[in-house]
Specification:
The complex is a heterodimer of chains A (309) and B (249). Chain A contains eight helices and 16 strands. Helices cover 27% and strands 28% of the residues of chain A. In chain B, the strands form three sheets. Chain B has a nine-stranded mixed beta sheet with strand order 11-10-9-12-8-1-6-7-13, sandwiched between helices. In chain B, strands 2-5 form a two-stranded antiparallel sheet. The chains are: A alpha/beta (309), B alpha/beta (249). At the A-B interface, helix 3, helix 4, strand 5, strand 7 and strand 8 of A face strand 3, helix 3, helix 4, strand 9 and strand 10 of B. Strand 16 of chain A pairs parallel with strand 15 of chain B.
Amino acid sequence: MAILVIADHNNETLNDATLKVVGAAQKMGGDIDLLVAGKGASGVAEAASKVAGVRKVLHADDAHYAKRLAEPMAELIIGMAGGYSHIVSSSGTDGKNFMPRVAAKLDVMQVSAITGVESADTFVRPIYAGNAMATVQSADATKVITVQPTAFDAVGTDGSAPVETIGNGAFPGISEFVAEELTKSDRPELAGAKIVVSGGRALGSNEAFEQYIYPLADKLGAAIGASRAAVDAGYMPNDYQVGQTGKVVAPELYIAVGISGAIQHLAGMKDSKIIVAINKDEEAPIFQVADYGLVADLFEVMPKLQEAV
Amino acid sequence: MKVLVPVKRVVDYNVKVRVKSDNTDVDLANVKMSMNPFDEIAVEEAVRLKEAGVAEEVVVVSIGVEKAQDQIRQALAMGADRGLLLTTDQDLESLTVAKLLQKIVEEETPQLVIMGKQAIDDDRNQTGQMLAALLGWPQGTFASEVKKEGDKLHVTREIDGGLQTVSLNLPAVVTSDLRLNEPRYASLPNIMKAKKKPLDKKAAADFGIDLTPRLTKLKVTEPPQRKAGIKVESIEELVSKLKNEAGVL
């Protein structure tokens, strides 16, 4: 048995999520190969070679992989599938995009966003916005799996796997990258941050986020998150959304400010080590999961909190 | 062009589902069912394309129980032209649904399929991508903007870290994310009109596709519960607890 893990990266750095996906793959059992498909991503391939427990790094380099569009990525992975019992990726937006395409072409039912590995063919995953956990067994010859990285421990970076350059897959030529608009930020990435400060609808505006959330986050070196309600209301862009339909985070400290705690939000942050909730409604469901709750008007206490930390 | 919109009947998003005591599944007896919210956004987008003169016809398809007609009628009331229901009492997996939709696409020959990025019951986020793969079509997943540019479709996608725009050859599959649009409420006259719009029914079993699931649900359990902690009285107390008790600051 061998497992192909698809590395998450941006051609420059290997995303830490990959270390956790390899951690999940180790629980499935088998030799682990890491695929780095990109353009000019040899630095990533080198970083990948240091990931502990990896047999070899397979490096595909072509302009078609620069943005990891689903169509060429799926072709590349399908071409390699023969040698593997499991094909595994993180459930980030790249993996979510190309993995089901791989699964369908292999006539496999993908197991999405797993949070547990019971055995080589049995996995645990949340359903109904995290209100229930399903344990499912796959009967497919090849298992195609996306992994919720926050649910697994990262492996070390003391490995020394060889890097092998591989040929390209077919290029379907039916899609093209046009442009991207990435949030420029010196703050840590939301999915991997140690501290997250999140705001909800109670903030009332984007300006309020800037005034009451950003300064605390900057002082703590934290990432910024938002509830779906705040995103829906247009206060923050969607990539800040924490929840079942947004990002799932599990930082050391999660500070929820003016967030009531809808089920779908809780599904995205309830594995955080320490949860702090600040809300003026003492009945808010967020207090049922918070380690420390403060019933207060955020506009009054946030400046004080910023001072005090 | 013709647009096909697959919609799914799911537990209403306001319902907090409970796990059955025998841990075989969640308990869906007598709970409110609705159209999957992401599919509602897909219907809205298709109707807007029609209103903008980009699409000529919007066909809605659902696969599920007889009662899934309600969700098709809702889509018709929002402005879709006609509906198709593939009936089955089985709980179908994404791959099977994609294969059935492939058959419908071959019959209907739409230029565009728009559907929700994920259903809020099984949260799998894969049917649209699978359909695109089976058809050999490009895909614009997690869309926040869809624009026709000449003979291409430009789709802006919500990705980790921001937005990405791709240009797709048509025909294509698009899956909707939250911010693509805000779905309209159907007006009463439109609800009445929708009752007269055509809605065909076929049996899902008649398409020659094996409906047997590949995944066996061994058990369904409650998620691990977190215990509520304590209430603090002031910012000073909070910061002191975080520093001294939790050790996270």
